[in-house]
Predict the structure.
Amino acid sequence: MRDSLPMKNTSATPLGAGAKRSTPSGGLQAWLPRLVLAPSVAISLFFVYGFMLWTFVLSLTSSRMLPSYDFVGFGQYSRLMANERWWVASTNLMIFGVLFVLICLVIGSLLAILLDQKIRQEGALRTIYLYPMALSFIVTGVVWKWLLNPQLGIQAMVQGWGFESFRFDWITNPDMAIYTLVIAAVWQASGFVMALFLAGLRGIDDSIVKAAQLDGASLPRIYWRVVMPCLRPVVFSAVMILAHIAIKSFDLVVALTGGGPGYATDLPATFMYAHAFTRAQIGLGSASAMLMLGGVLAILIPYLYSELRSRKHG
Amino acid sequence: MANVIRRQTPAARLGRGLLYGVLILAALFYILPLVVMLMTSVKPLSEISAGSLLSFPQNPTFAPWTKAWGEACTGMRCDGVGGYFWNSFAIVIPAVLISTTIGALNGYALTKWRFKGSELVFALMLFGCFIPFQVVLLPMAQTLGWLGISSSRAGLILVHVVFGIAFTTLFFRNFYVGIPNELVSAAKLDGAGFFRIFWRILLPVSAPIIVVSVIWQFTQIWNDFLFGVAFSAHNTQPVTVALNNLVNTSTGVREYNVDMAAAMIAALPTLVVYVLAGKYFVRGLTAGSVKG
Amino acid sequence: MAALEIHNVRKEFGSERVLKDVSISIDSGEFLILVGPSGCGKSTLMNAIAGLEPVTSGNIYIDGEDVTWRTPADRDIAMVFQSYALYPSMTVRQNISFGLEMRKVPKAEREAAVERVADLLQITHLLERKPAQLSGGQRQRVAMGRALAREPKVYLFDEPLSNLDAKLRVDMRTEIKKLHQRLGTTIVYVTHDQVEAMTLADCIAVMRDGHILQLGSPDEVYNNPVDMFVAGFMGSPSMNFIRASLENNNGGYQLRIATPGEDELVLPWPEERIAADMAERLNQPVILGLRPEHFSEEDERLTSQAEGTLLSASVAVVEPTGADILLRLPLGEQEVTARVGPKCAVAAGERLALRVDMGRAILFDAETEQRIA
């Protein structure tokens, strides 16, 4: 019975039906998974990677109304760098992005921690905090435009209460209008951060907190020293998603300020759209789109890298 | 968490009161814009200019809604947002169904029929979730033109399917990873093939993720503005574009009540979905951040 | 003709070789158990037999037909999975008949098969339930029922009892044995539990690192292990391995166990068990393998009849199991376990005279860990 000793014959070829296949399954069956995925892969290659390349090519041309393939090297990029409106848009994105991400994180984590204290009606409160995320940015923009309207909105309301000197006219003030974008975007997205944090909190092992309590730590201390460090991945994902929303922000600007007053609230996304579609500057628009892609990649690559690393080690 | 045993000292009670105070204040911050929107949408114009934001409508009227639906001017045309509302549905429904179906099959093939390079294929497709869509706008416009479907609903459906399958594939892949491979092995031994296993074994247990995927795609596509404004003509616009046009049409008196009614109309479908299936909505939102 | 023949099967994942020229052949109606620690390749071999994973080279024959490149469905095998893998959306009845349905068996026949199997496994009352409504033991039965319904040539069991609690596991083990005796089916069964292997198998294949170390009956594998790994793996508590040196003893052999600071300990090797190559190993270190039951307490009344060598040791730990008592005793540089009768009244710290059954002892090479005698 002991016939398991290594035998010399190492080049055993299958004798059975037909040639050797990669898997022991019928011809078509073996290829079906690949066939099913093929259209999606093709779509992805063409519509995502191909289009990115295409846009890059366009950004190297002098295209205006229509795409032309008259190459001007990186001329469009230097034009972009010299374009004051682009700088306004980029600076705006920095201000908007940083404030939006930070405020959302603070409000979101705070609400999540407060909601995690065995609150009555937690479900109802959660629903209320999160519903703006279901709305279109256009709707958000329309509503906040109305609320921020100095003649009819919050300013008028507070003045009506007797505070005649109350001023809240940021939306018409070129220096302040960018902050109205922050307010509306935070209103829309902070509930989502709350949901992320709450899910994270609920996922933490109870016994860690119990152990900390037995060690005599106070509740705020437990949150700061024990719980929050556990939520680092949540913070990471939240920053990632929020930054992504910020860079892509287009609809909100269109609906709330229209980029105005003047172009005081332009963001790269609106800049790109305006130049590519309404100002007949396809080359310049493409260059700005490529820079936006660069911005996203700058955030995405470290994220994916750490994500893959942690998966390998975890 | 928070299974703290508290003695009901006065200080603790004060703390609890404060806690609820902050939570309710926050709730007001989130809910008031919706309340104002709703109240404004049923006020006559005279009441808006006379009263304050939060004043309750004295003579509620449904006229702004009917006007927003059927008569308000959106750009050149004055036939309300009703038609665009149906436009949105005509775009959203096929796009959601197609992208969810493709995503389900992709997720199934990627997890249960792994092959050399299937992880690479997934990574390749996943990237589509992250790109800023500005980078595909111009080539897309040209491609739709070549295909002869620029400014058509079919074109918008195609665009939403193309950029939706990255998400739906992600959802289904992450869900199917959790389904034991042994189920598929058992079915293979029982003699079932690729599609049969999907149809008979996987699909019947996929209800939760189908709901997540449908809701996510529905809200994403319904709320889309960028593709809508870039790739539609006046008669194929989705409701978000029509709403924006309505609000920004600068002819005659600004009818804020009509604006708000139109905004409500545009918001209602996704709000209804959110209220009915909030749990799944949250799962879709967080799916991107949950490791697969 | 062999019901299942595995010929020089190799499996490589990249550069990692998971199966290294495995060959096994079993007859119709035989119960083969693949046993070994996790990662030894037993599950891979099982999946290769099932056709769920392609082999790198080698051939698999079922009933004389080469099935190496056939689909799982075309091999006429059924499998019971560790997780049972019951289709969650189907009732028990649908689960059992699914395989027949896929093979286009007429409905009436399917129904008859379901009834037959349900009757056999006493799950008739569960037929309309969904898997989620079943207990662990019930799921296990349904999983077996699904395999039995098709009446395949070979059954594969992949650790089918490992998800059950201890008592149920013993019951189901008996039941599987009864079923096998009654139906005379050919079964390949994977487990890491050596008790299951001993109790169920006609034939055990002990695997390690992608090799089959030993293929034989439970008795052979237990009493005549080929090396220290097999000897240590089979049996619980496992075999004691005692370092010793082989010495000449008036033409015969004896084993000296180093006992620093104590009386010397010498065990004579029984003459009838002298192996040819023992002479080459004189005065070299060897490993003496003694199972716990090879020790017995010295009982005055039995002294006259009892065979074996006496030794005396102080007891470090006494572990009564109910049926018998396990004693831990220091012996030279190591601690050994001895299994004695439940009446043995000894306390920790006391000295005890033990009789060693050298007739069943096994000698291993200290270097290669292979068996010498």
Residues 10-61 of chain B form one domain. Residues 10-41 of chain B form the longest helix (32 residues).
